[in-house]
Amino acid sequence: MDNLPGLSAHYGQILETLLNQQDNNHPDQSVLRKNALQRLMETGFPSTRDEEWRFTNTKILNETAFRLADTVTNANASQEQNRFDNWPGIRLVFVNGQFMAGLSKNMDPNDRRLSIENTAFIADSEPDGFGLLHLALQNSGLTIRIADNVQLSEPIHLLFIASGADNEMMTPVCDINAGRNSGLTIIENFISSDQNTNFTNTHTRIRLSENASVRHIKIINENIRSYHYGQLRVDQERDSRFQSLAFLFGNKLNRNNISIILNGSGCESLMDGVFAGHRNQHHDVHTLIHHASPHCRSHELYRGILADESSAVFSGKIHVHPDAQKTDALQSNNCLLLSDQATINTKPQLEIYADDVKCTHGATVGQLNEDQIYYLRSRGIPEKKARNILTYAFAREIIEQVETEEVRNYIDQLLLNRLEEDMDFHK
After folding, report:
1. What is the rounded end-to-end Cα distance, in angstroms, of the chain?
2. Which domain holds residue 424?
3. What's the CA gap between 418 and 361, in Å, rounded?
4. E runs forming strands in 223-308
5. Other C-beta atoms lying within 10 Å of the C-beta of residue 313
6. Does residue 377 lie within any of the structural domains?
7. Of the N and C termini of the chain, which has fewer Cβ atoms inside 10 Å?
8. pLDDT, tens digit, for every residue of 199-254?
9. Is 66 part of any domain?
10. Which helix (H) or strand (E) segment is 134 a member of?
11. Can you give the pTM of this predicted structure?
């Protein structure tokens, strides 16, 4: 990369500023940050020359010297968070990647069921250059701990509002720990309060203790000029249950990495999602499930809806380790192309090193059924409306898995608005 020396100096200066702001009691953290930046400058950012990125053009991310976003809360951000006042549970608000306790809701410091602590750094694995950049420059986040035997009936809503100027980067981090026999729902909701071009680089780590149950819902609806790189790493212990539901609507480009490790027998892991692209949007979904223990189950279903000149990548891998006998793993990717210009590259993969397993994978790519369209039109429904009805039905199966009514209605409306917007755009 010709601009790597310039970026090295730019991000190095940002890192020095962060380190100067830190408490001197964290020397190990400084070493980890500096090592991450050094490795980044040695390896560079990913590009289409890398196998894991060959269908995703990262040129603008590789060449832009992003600044860390301003922490000032503007009026637009304050107004945006009010839209979710009817959502139940705890709301934890980030603006431009910075946690804002003053905008958050229903935080009770005396609640012994859980603890919520500010954190600026969590050391974790970094799969590529953008992960290394996040490890070096992460500067605001939360550690959430759910006590043993606690079942939270209402969700914890993490609301991330991008409200920065052009070429600003947000680097939030969340560490979620579920105690033995506990249960909770976490919602990560990413929105924009303006149309500026910015870059959200985020990382979430979830640890499930024995017999814990966690549902993670991620909703991305940032503006179509912005960029999003998200990592989710999940570690499951014996008899735990994890469910991931992802709804990807926003950004010019978003990359969603999910890595799950089944460390104990009897684990169950479910991953479902919908990505919807239009105009020149690009969605890139990479998932990896490590079956490291016997008697575990994983089921995965992603559905894509691509219109106009949008594009997407789905790459899902199931890795069954030698000791993971009696594994039950299913992976499926179904994509709906609504125009001749839309493209999808789908790559479901299995790596199996055990002999007593049940593993399947598959992918389908197609268009709307013309017979079904004709059926709806014969009953007086205009053609464009008929197409929208069938497109909505394609995604509805996954949306219906969201149990909280207010959240499910919100996702419903995002998809319906997208379909109506596309209808108006093509009139």
Report:
1. 43
2. 372-427
3. 30
4. 227-236, 241-248, 253-262, 268-277, 282-291, 297-306
5. 22
6. yes
7. C
8. 999 999 999 999 999 999 999 999 999 999 999 999 999 999 999 999 999 999 99
9. yes
10. helix 129-137
11. 0.94
